[in-house]
Specification:
single chain, Rossmann fold, Rna Polymerase Sigma Factor, Chain: A, seven-stranded parallel beta sheet, 16 helices, 11 strands, 45% helix, binds NADP nicotinamide-adenine-dinucleotide phosphate
Length: 390
Amino acid sequence: MRPGTMKSLCLLGASGSIGQSTLKLVDQHPDRFRITAMSAHTQIDALIDLCRRYRPLQACIADSSLFTALRDGLRAEGLATTPLAGSEGLQDMAADNRSDTVIAAIVGAAGVASTFSAARAGKRILLANKESIVLAGQLLMQTVAEYGAQLFPVDSEHNAIFQCLPAHGGRAGVRRLILTASGGPFLGKTRAELATITPEQACRHPKWSMGRKISVDSATLMNKGLEVIEAHHLFGMPAEAIEVVVHPQSIVHSMVDYCDGSVLAQMGEPDMRTAIAYGLSYPERIDSGVKTLDFRTLGRLEFQTPDTETFPCLSLAYTAIGRGGNAPAVLNAANEVAVMAFLEGRLPFLAIPDIVAQTLDALAWEPAEDLAVLMASDAEARRYANNRIH
Ligand SMILES: NC(=O)c1ccc[n+]([C@@H]2O[C@H](COP(=O)([O-])OP(=O)(O)OC[C@H]3O[C@@H](n4cnc5c(N)ncnc54)[C@H](OP(=O)(O)O)[C@@H]3O)[C@@H](O)[C@H]2O)c1
């Protein structure tokens, strides 16, 4: 082990797709990273199994009703890991001073409180939970600055932009950010063809292997909409200077367009380990296990305009940025409810944007200065969207 280089990681959402990719990097670099804390929502057996493998100091099951099962399971394994539960357990773990880095990889607004907790504790945060920054972007950026935390985008597009921006972090000379979108599994389809889409079809992404919620977001293009909001806050760029271009091969992960005509792109295989590795080791680079691009066999790289008639979620996200205040929180909450209903077979695929649009139009505008107000908007939007679906 090289002294002084070991990072202690609190992995929120350890049982998920980003969680698993992070653990592969930990396995690859045991001399650099150790897991001090990990969480899951309901997958209790998976969490106990991970504790057996990584022996963290703390483990949290977000579903509090499973606390006893976690405590007993850890005991039965003879592990000294402290069991925690619920949102408070997640927040305590994110703030615990025995970890220096928090990987925020919970899906949905359920990840907001722990992301803020990590920010208030001045942690180095690898942010995969894009919903945190969509719901409360301005406040999160303020909290990060106020408490001296560091935010590293793990979303591959934002990680790409982070890599292509000037090293000193300024925006001088930056004309546009160009986010690439794979187009999802239904690229080129008409609305009529999407009428009978099933959750299994929507979750079968052509390029990326991801959790079910983000896979559906990718299929509706809402994922790209959330990413536009995320880029707006992370990089302090106005919505007009953030452009989305469809790039089905998912090789160019995003680009920065400079005023002198230079466009810098970050490229690589579509594998989240590249972005996570960069966040974990920044400013160094480490081997991520991702294979290198072979330009001789890569073939064509295509770029096209997104079809916002068939996939209106992207336009809805721009509308939410334009309205500001609680509108992105409302958009995010309505989308989470609609996606869950679709995944459970209660809502057709094409109705997802309808629910989001109706909720956005129905709820009163509120300023985004207070997390409590935003969380209240989130709850109200969930109630409204659920009622519409019923
Ligand atoms: N996967 C990707 O390639 C990718 C790329 C870019 C950004 N992201 C973002 O990263 C985040 C995670 O995505 P993912 O694909 O890894 O999702 P995922 O595979 O569905 O995993 C989600 C994780 O969050 C936990 N979780 C779910 N609901 C929770 C709740 N209510 N409270 C606390 N924990 C909860 C899950 O626990 P259980 O397993 O117990 O349910 C699991 O550990 C999302 O915000 C997504 O947008 C993902």
